[in-house]
Amino acid sequence: MSHHTPVAKTRGDRKAAVGNVGRPPVSWALPGIVFFVVFAIIPLGIAVYLSFCDWDGLNSPSLTGLDNWSRLFKDSEFGQAAWLSLLLTTISWVFQTPVALLLGVWAAGRQRSRAVLSAIFFIPLLLSTTAIAMLFHALLDPNFGVIKEIGPWIGVDPNVMGSSTGALLVVAFVGGWQFMPFHTLIYQGGARQIPEVLYQAASIDGAGMVRQFFHITLPQLRHTMTTSSVLMIVGSLTYFDTVLIMTKGGPGTDTTILPYLMYRTGFQTYDLGYAAAIATALVVVATGISLIMVRLSGFGSMRSTREGM
Model's pTM, two decimal places? Predict the structure, then answer.
């Protein structure tokens, strides 16, 4: 009697068998899930609870219902901080995305100097935000900083931090200078996944570098751009230490964005219940913008073409 090894007899069985190849068990994600629950979900739940309380940080929180939330929607300072946060996020995205995209595509090439220049360019990403903010604060000091000497040469007011527009642009520039290498790395990885055969076919058809970039590179990096943009927007909405060190929310309240308003409310006036409401609103705004971007870009329906390989 001969014995035969069972095989998948139908196309569905073969597809299921191939689809399970290379998939790790769910237990592999357990440490990450536990970490996320302990350090993200539980603190967020506590913040949401405190947003319905009156708490000074010393005594026990007392429930006050929707008092903090009704105050939030009537607070003109909160409205200004929300507008400044969205404005700073927009400026950061417009400033960082094109530069990071072009640098990432360039860094994905095979130029002789690419490795050295890329390593130098990624140095700001290794520095702490506090150190970078202190560095730029010293450089832009109108009395003792470098800006006092070179500002008039390049047409920049040495007291650039004294104007509302200048202070906001400086905060956006400093954040971009530090985190643009991170997004460049994302685009570099995405550009290296584009099949070389597409460029070879385009070259045969007579397409130059510019046409290849707009007709091949950009479409292929659409989901990479969505990933980078979501991370960039969430990061820009949570700027804090840069504002704290460089402007302290000034001049006046012209750089008082939501994270700084939350800090000032909670740790300077000790109104931690209202600060928790601000923090919760910030989470809702950041999550909402991220979900809208994912939905409009079609990122949520993306499927891997390498799954099962």
Answer: 0.84
